[in-house]
Amino acid sequence: MTLDQDLVRHLSEVSVSVELQTPEMTLNIGPQHPSTHGVLRLVARVDGERAFDVRPVIGYMHRGYEKLAEVRNYPQITTIVNRIDWVAGYANEIPFITAAEKLMELEVPPRALWIRLILTEMARMASHLIFMASYPLELGAQTPLFFALRERERVLDLLEGVTGGRFHPNFNRIGGVKPAYGSGSQTRKLIQDLPKTFYEETRVAMDEVLHVCDQLEDLVAGNEIILARTKGIGVLPPEVAVAYGVTGPNLRASGVAFDLRRVEDYLPYDQFEFNVITGQNGDCWDRWWVRLQEIRESARIVQQAIDSIPSGPIQAKVPKVIKVPKGETYVRAENPKGEMGYYLVSDGGQGPYRLKIRSASFSNISILPWILEGVLVPDIIAIMGSLDFVLGDVDR
Amino acid sequence: MQLLAEVMSNFWLGLIIKLLIVALLVPVIGMIIGFAEMKLSAKMQNRVGPYYAGGRWGWAQLIADGLKFFQKEDIIPADADRPVFKLAPALVLGATVALVVVIPFGPNMAFRNLELGLFYALAISSISTIGVLVAGWSSANKYSLIGSLRAAGQLIAYELPLVLSVVGVVILAGTMNLDAIVQAQIATGIPYVVPQFLGFVIFFIAALAELSRLPFDMPVAESELVMGYLTEYTGFRFLFFFLAEFVNMFTMSAIAVTLFLGGYHFPGLSGDLATVLGPIVLIAKSFLLVFVMLWFRWTFPRFREDQLQSMAWKVLVPLALANIAVTAILKVVI
Amino acid sequence: MTSSQPEAEAPEQEQETVEAPHPLTEFANSVAEAVGGEAVITFDTVKVSVPADRWAQALTTARDEFGLVLFSFLSAIDWSNETAVGDPLEQPLEEEYIELICTVSDVSEGKRVTFSTRLDHDHPEVQTLIDVYAGANWHEREAHEMFGIRFIGHPDLSHLYLPEGFLGHPLRKTFPLLAREVKPWPGKVDVEGMPSEEGEEGEAAEGGEGAETEEEEA
User: Fold this and answer.
1) Which residue in A110, A103, A52, A47 sits closest to A316, CA to CA?
2) B54 in a structural domain
3) Do C88 and C109 share a domain, yes or no?
4) Residue C71 forms beta bridges with which residues?
5) Is residue A320 less than 8 Å (CB to CB) from chain C?
6) Could you list the residue range(s) of the whole structural domain that residue C108 is in?
7) Which of A67, A242, A247 sits opposite C69 (nearest CB)?
8) Which chains sit next to B, with 3 or more Cβ pairs under 8 A?
9) Are C49 and C28 contacting, i.e. CB atoms less than 8 angstroms apart?
10) A150 — contact with chain B (CB < 8 Å)?
11) What is the ipTM for the molecules in this complex?
12) Residues 349-388, chain A: which have Cβ within 8 Å of B?
C-alpha cells in the first residue's frame, strides 16, 4: 500500500514541463506524385500543417525545344511544337505558324483561318475539360472525372477525324492547314477538305459539351465541401499576377479582363460573339468557375464558326522549299493555359535563327513561392491544381 | 421451430452454430457490399464496372480479388514490430465482428442479448481506433505514423457525437438493451427516427467519420502520405483492413437501423413470421443505409483535416447535447 | 524609325475592352523618346533598343508611364559568327554580341513593347529586373543558365532547368548538340533507305535537300 502511495505521489510531482519541440520538417512533394500534374518537385519547409518557403524544382521535362528549333526547318518544327502543352496540342502550333507567315507576309485564306479557329477552340475545350476532371479529383470527388472525360473524348474524336491525331495534330502548314485527305501530289488535285460528317458531328458534340457543363455545374458548383475547400483559398491579387506574368484564366479570375483573342489578330475572333469571363476574388473557386464558363464560350464560338465557315482554298501558294525572309517578330495567342508566344528571329534560311517560346505555365507557376507561403499542406494541392499547368509547358 | 429452439438451448451446440453463422456472415456481407460499391459507382459514373469475372455480371470479381490477395507475398518491413504489426488488422476486424454479436436479427435473436448492448457496441467500436494507431506505429515508416495519428485524431473527435447522439434514444426507450429498444419502437409504432431525427443525422455523420469514408477519408487518401497508416500492409493483411471497413459499414448501419429505424420490425409481421423474416428485414434496411454511404462517397470531395475537426467539436457536439436536453425535458413533460 | 508594314489595329468587337485605333508608330515613338532608345516596328512588333546601362530604368519607365505592367518574357539572342549547330548567319557580323530582349505588355488594349539591349558577347552582364517586375526572377535564371548572362543584383542565380554542375551554356551558338556530332546537320540520309520512314522518323531525313518530301509538306 505504501509503495503505491509513494509511487502516486512521485508521479504527481513529476510534471510534464518539457516544451514539446516540433521541429520543422522538410517535405518533398514530388516529383512522382499523383497531384502535381507531371514531374514537378516542391521542396517545402513544413511546421505542423503549415508550409513555408516553398521552392519548386522544375526541369525534369526539359527537352531543349529552343535548341531543337535551331536545327530544324519550319515544317519539321510544327511536328514537335504541339508537344509543349500536350493537353491542348493544336493550340501550340498556331502562334508559331502565324509568326512564320507574318515574316513571309503571306495571306492565309479565310477558310484556313476558320478551320484553325475551330480546332483551337476545340483544343481549349479539351484542356479545360481535363481541368474539370482532375481538379475535383484532387479534392476527393471522383465522379466529375468521368463526366468531363466522356465529353473530352467527343472533342478528341472530332480532332482526330480532321487532323488524324488526338494530342499531336501537326495540322498547320505555312500558309494554311494541311489537306485532310492524303498529301501526295496526285491527291492534291482532288477536293481535300474537312470530312463530310464533320459539320453535323460538331454540332452534336457542342450540344453535348454544353450539357455536360450544366451537369458539372450541378454536381460541383453548389457542393458545400468544394466551396469550403476552394473559396478564399489561394487568393491572387491582380497586381501580383501581372508582375509575375500570369495570364489566361488565372489572370481573368483575379478580375483583369484581358483576353488575347480580343487584342491580337492572329485568328478572326472579331467575327464571333463571345464573352470574356472574369472572376471577382482570384481564389481557387474563381479559377474553376472561369474555366467552366470558358468551355461554354468556346462551344458557342465553335457553333457560330461551323455555321459561317467560308469556302475556298485551305492553303496559300507557297514555294516548295520554304525560306522565311530575314526579320523578327513576336506573335502571341490565347492558349488555354494563358499567353503563349513565339519570338521568331529569322535569318532568311529554312529554319529559324532563334526561336524563343514563351509558354504560359512557366510564368503561371513562377508564382508558387509567393502564393504558397504559409498555406496548409492540403491547400497546397488545391492551389496547385487550380493553376492548371502542364509540365511540358513549364519545362519546354 | 421447436427443434431449433431445443438445439439453441444446448450451450455448446448453440455456440458452435452461432460461431459458424458469424464466420460465414462476415466475409459474405463484406463481399456483397464491396461488389455493390463497384457496380453502383460504375452506374453513377457512366461506366460498367466489373464485367468479365462471372458471366457478364462480374459477381465473381470480389472472390477473385480475395483469392488474389491471399496468394500475395507477405511482406513485413524489416524494422517493423512484428507481433504488433500482425495484431493490428486482427484488432480492427475483431472489433467489427464483435459488434455483430449484439445486433438483434429478430425477436430474441441476437447472438448474445446484453443488457448493456448499446454501451457494449459503442465501446467495442472504439477498439478499432487502437488498431489504427497500432498499425501506423508498427510500420516503422514516418509517413504511416503521421497518417495514423491523423486518423486517430479524427476517430477520437467523432466518438463524442456518436455516443451523444444515441443518448436521446436511450432516454426515450428507457433501456440500453438493443432488443428492448426495438420492442419499444414496435410498441409505440413510431420508429425513433421521427422524434430523434437530429440524433439520427448526427449518428450517421459520426458513423461515416468513424469508418473513414468520404467525405472524411483524409487519413486514407492523403495526397502526400500515400495510403496513410495502410502503406506497409500488403496481401491478406490489407484485405483484412478492407474487409473490416466494409463489414463495419454494415454493422454501423445495422445499429443505426436498430436504434432509429425499427430494427427487424416490419408493419404486419409478428410471431413465427417475424422470426424468419426478421433478419431479412434488418439486412435490407441496413443495406439501404449502406447504399446512402456509398452514394456519399462518389458525390462529395473530402474535408480538410481542420474543417473536419471544427465540424465535430463546434457543430455536432453542441447539437447532440441540445438534442439530449430537449429529449429529456420533453420526456418529463409529455 | 523604320516600319516594315503599315500598321493599324483593326477595331475589335467591344464587350469589355474597347480598342482605340491608332497606328503603332506614334506609340513606338513615344516609348522610345521616354526611355532614350530607338524604336523599330518589325512585322507588327514594337522593338525598342536601349543602351545596356539604362536597362532597368527603361523598363521602370515602361511600367510606370505607359502602363506596361504585364511581364511577358525575358530572353536573349546569341548573335555570333560561329555556330556549332544550324546554319551560320548569311552575312557575318562585324561584332558579336548577345541581345537581351524583354517583352512587356499592358492589360487593357494589348499594346506590347519588346525592349532590347546589346551585351558583351563573352562576359555579358546587366542589371536585374527583379525590382521592376517580380516575374523576371525565373526568366533571368533561365537566361543565365542558357546564355551565361550575369544579372547583377539577382538573389539566387541557380540553375532552373539544368541539373547541378552542368557545364556550358546550351543556347549559345557554340554549344554543340551531341546528336549532331554523330550525324551532321541537316541529317543526311542514312544508308538504310529513308523513303519508307515518313512522318515522325522521316523528319530527320528530310533536310534542306529533301525536295520531294518538302513538296508534300508545303
Assistant:
1) A110
2) no
3) yes
4) C104
5) yes
6) 14-176
7) A242
8) A
9) no
10) yes
11) 0.84
12) 376-379, 381
In a domain, B79, yes or no: yes
* C69 and C161 fall within a common domain: yes
Closest CB to C72: pick one of A185, A259, A339: A339
Q: How far is C112 from chain A (nearest CA, A)?
A: 10
User: Can you give the residue range of the structural domain that contains B171?
Assistant: 74-333
Instruction: Supply the CATH classification number for the domain A53-395.
Output: 1.10.645.10
- Helix or strand holding residue A382 (H, E): helix A377-387
**What is the full per-residue pLDDT of chain A (396 aa) written as tens digits?**
455 565 655 555 444 434 445 566 777 776 766 665 778 888 888 877 788 888 888 888 888 888 888 888 888 888 889 889 888 889 999 999 999 998 988 888 998 899 999 999 999 999 999 999 888 888 888 888 888 998 899 999 988 888 888 888 888 888 888 766 555 555 555 556 777 788 899 999 999 999 999 988 988 887 888 888 888 888 999 989 988 989 999 999 998 889 989 888 889 998 898 889 898 888 999 999 999 999 999 999 999 999 888 888 888 888 877 888 888 999 999 999 999 999 999 888 888 889 999 999 999 989 999 998 888 877 888 898 898 888 888 888
In a domain, residue C8? The reply is no
Q: How many domains does chain B have?
A: 1
Distance between CA atoms of residues A27 and C49, nearest Å: 45
Closest CA to C102 of C168, C45, C159: C45
Q: How many alpha carbons lie under 13 Å from residue C54 in its C-beta half-sphere?
A: 15
Evaluate whether residue B27 is within a structural domain: no
Sign of CA dihedral B36, B39, B43, B45: positive
Residues C171 and C217 in one domain: no
Query: Do C188 and C157 fall into the same domain?
Result: no
Q: How many domains does chain C have?
A: 2
Q: Which residues of A touch C60 (CB under 8 A)?
A: none
**Nearest chain B residue (CA) to A146:** B45
Q: What is the pTM of this model?
A: 0.82
CATH code for position C118 = 3.30.460.80
